[in-house]
Protein: Phosphate regulon sensor protein PhoR
Amino acid sequence: GNEVVLSVQLVPFDSTRKLLLSRDITQIERVQTIHRDFVANVSHELRTPLTVVGGFIETLIDIPDIDPQLRSQQLRLMHEQAMRMQRLVEDLLTLSRLENGVDIRDERFEVAELVKLVASEARGLSQGRHQITLSIDDSPPMYGSYDELHSAFGNLVSNAVRYTPDGGEIRVSWKYDATTAQGSFSVEDTGIGIDPIHIPRLTERFYRIDRGRSRATGGTGLGLAIVKHIVQRHQAKLDIQSEPGKGSRFSIQIPANRLATSLVDAHK
Ligand code: ADP
Structure:
């Protein structure tokens, strides 16, 4: 009698173990693939500008008395490529800092000030090519990393500028709902828009719909990956809505515990 019971119990136990094991292996393989792809992507992103810079340097060595106008043109292009590599390395460092969770310093600051700063940076990037409007609700101060949120909000407005053709509209806003104590930062553009099939993958590192367009406007392909990390670290939520040819709306929802001052204030 006992033996029968045992074997009956062993069968489901074993099959569950196997299932768990194969799921773990699949997960490990997935992580390895992501890592391999990442290294390949970084190498590829660095190789192109390095090839360009190397080529120009060779020309300048081979032809020392090159036409000055040609020389300054080549120097400008080399500078552009160096800047591109710098942006990539900066973004990689930011990502790795976020992934390692170092340098986390939360502080209290006025959201309105940050949103105004980000909007004025957007105007700087746009240089009058877009109509940029700003709307800000009154709200309690936010508790979080000012630098990180500056970078997250900044990435969203710079994307709006970069993916909206001249003459388009960009709406930057901060909304605060007093009943739920939740806040929401959003950037709405009338730009090229995004096909819904791409939306779930946009925050993956180096995921770009149009590599040429991203590069031409100075993109590294890491902006939204950085935004995702910052958003997660603040228990916030990133929401993306878009329609190809019409425009996009990116918003970051800030939870009540990062805005409700009553508790914090009571103890100050
Ligand atoms: P990139 O440096 O390429 O802009 P991001 O991570 O910031 O990298 O964005 C990933 C991709 O998402 C972009 O390459 C682009 O295809 C798309 N994207 C981001 N923001 C917008 C936007 N406002 N409108 C249209 N497409 C966008």
Remarks:
- The chain is about 55% helix and 15% strand.
- Strands lie at 107-109, 131-136, 142-144, 169-177, 182-189, 237-243, 247-254.
- The pocket of adenosine-5'-diphosphate is lined by residues 155, 159-160, 163, 189, 191-194, 202, 207-210, 214, 219-225, 248 (CB under 6 Å).
